[in-house]
Amino acid sequence: MLDRSPRLCLFSAALFSVSMAGLPASAQDALPGVEPDTAIIAPADKQAPPDTEAGTEPEDDATSETGVTAKRGRITPFNGAALPENEIPALRRPGGEGKPADGKIAPSGGVNVLERMGVALPALPAEKPFEGKADDAYGAFQRGYYLTAMELALPRAQLGDASAQTLVAEIFAQGLGVPRKPKDAAFWYGQAAASGDPSAMFKYAILLMEGRDVPRDKARSEELMKKAADRGNASAQFNYAQLLVADQPGQAGLKAAMPYYEKSAVQGIADAQYALSQIYLNVDGIPDDKRARAREWLLRAAAAGVDTAQLDAGIWLVDGVGGSRNLEQGFGWMLRAANSGNVVAQNKLSHLYINAIGTRPNPVEAAKWYVLSRRAGLKDDDLEDFYLGIGEAQQKAAREAANRFRAVRG
């Protein structure tokens, strides 16, 4: 099978997240950060006086047009004190699942990035050993000898060999050693799909769904997607699950799709792993043994680079969702999601720095991530008060750090 990448899937995890409407709020629902009754930062009038050793600046004043001096709400988080366990603010909306871990939880004493990322993940299943006859055409293709692969595969494709037809289609689709010919690729994908090749079924189902280089045919597309999924194609399994969720909004569709998400997740499709974590945690009637694995699947998706999964992993580990709390690992995943450009993670990371949750307090880093999330349009009044209260020197340093971050990301 040529296509092993979930990024070629027709539907993305965004469709799955839309289908979760009406279920308990997920991490991404928590825009723009936190609710007032679970606010990360307490109002200024409930805070102790600033600790000057922590590097905070005197309170900033603002003068109105009438000449009356008004005081902006002041936030003073940098006193270095550990928050009592029952006062660690939640990153999710009220009603989140999970219980705090036993024992005192204190800010991190400082661990390196590898330790923060050191989440033990179950090993992926071993690949099945190849027991068939060696294929010279595919061997040439894998070594980059595309013209040789075409010369070997085309005669077999014309005689009805499904795997050779798929290979010819792939060479034409990508323009490897030959001019790119999408219509010829579509023809050979169709031939291979009719001959029973699961990879070609998946590719041709996408073409039929989109009406690209072939007439659009939704019914035929869904039929081929299911056949490819039932024959073990991981990307088809994920996409067919997405079709079931789209056709049956709500928990009924999620339950119908769950077996296909499970099969795709086991084969390493990160989007399916993320979807499975949300279903296991949020859908009613899930067996306890499966619900207990929700965090495991979330961490697999996070490790594969899905930034939404990394955001959720940070929230789950800080809040104790789906297992015990681990503040340092939660901070690490939130940092990873923020560095990938996830705006919600950037906002929440600022709160973690302010309250020294899983890390040491750092006003400049907190302000930097707030600046980045604010530029992206994510409003947060608590963070705005914090930013206005740290002083011009630290504000300037934060803006410069935010500019460097954007420059590096291009």
Automatic annotation (TrEMBL):
SMART domains: SEL1 (SM00671)
KW Cell inner membrane (keyword) present: no
Signal peptide positions on this chain: 1-27
Biased composition (Acidic residues): 54-63
InterPro entries for this protein: Sel1-like, Sel1_AlgK, TPR-like_helical_dom_sf
Keyword field: Signal
Gene3D superfamilies given in the database record: Tetratricopeptide repeat domain (1.25.40.10)
Pfam families the record matches: Sel1 (PF08238)
Stretch list, region Disordered: 42-72
Keyword Protein transport recorded: no
Listed name of the protein: Sel1 repeat family protein
Organism: Ferranicluibacter rubi
